[in-house]
């Protein structure tokens, strides 16, 4: 069983991670508010991932529910795998998602496994682990205990919320099983989950503000392309109706306005995707050899010592 690194809770990271599994038609967006307008802006939402500071002292006495065999639930059996497990908890529980060959085979292979064996299967799946670890930060030195968290360090954990078979489920790999949060539909499950998340936030002290909420949603470019096709069809239909299609026809003006608005949304999404690609390239690139060589050159030119002394002076004066 190989090591798993911690990865950044970032929508660009998670989206590329999903795509590396071979899954298509979905992306991840960060949610900054639980108000109705914000949630509607990212619909349809397949599931939510909540990141919070984990505390061993927090006791959760809610009962787990293993009654629904259609719920894919995996125990977390290795450190640092919770980000990928939270993603898989949504992907493997929403039949609308086009999983791709690899995850489809994995889901079928582990279908009858108990939670601990599902967790072991994830941990031992080389392709999933390699995709996860591709976002690890290069380390200049091999630390003896670099993979484990020290007692003084904050530990963060990911859990998923997803509707399955008319019930809202909380999937936390550190629990003994899934937690049934009650009945819901695909239309109202977001209304049901918001109070649950707010209650969890309120359990922490008022000084704790380090939470993160990510939504697994339908790929925005696919949504926009479908909407554009509908608008172009409406425009063509109006053009075919000679009597209805006039320069100042309200319907034609409205369609043209909606097309222009959609073009702007597509441009914004394309710009965001390009930024994600650049940021992920920087995350994965190993700058350490360059830095070592740069310091070596400075030392050879006898400039390193003076720069260090100057930096120390600035630090003391600040």
UniProtKB/TrEMBL annotation:
Gene3D superfamilies xrefs: 1.20.58.860, Peptidase C12, ubiquitin carboxyl-terminal hydrolase
InterPro entries hit by this protein: Papain-like_cys_pep_sf (IPR038765), Peptidase_C12_UCH (IPR001578), Peptidase_C12_UCH_sf (IPR036959), Ubiquitinyl_hydrolase_UCH37 (IPR017390), UCH_C (IPR041507)
One cellular component (GO) term of this entry: cytoplasm
Active site: 82, 157
A Pfam family assignment: UCH_C
Domain UCH catalytic: 3-218
Entry EC number(s): 3.4.19.12
PANTHER family in the record: UBIQUITIN CARBOXYL-TERMINAL HYDROLASE, UBIQUITIN CARBOXYL-TERMINAL HYDROLASE ISOZYME L5
The protein, known as: Ubiquitin carboxyl-terminal hydrolase
Organism: Chloropicon primus
Lineage summary: Eukaryota, Viridiplantae, Chlorophyta, Chloropicophyceae, Chloropicales
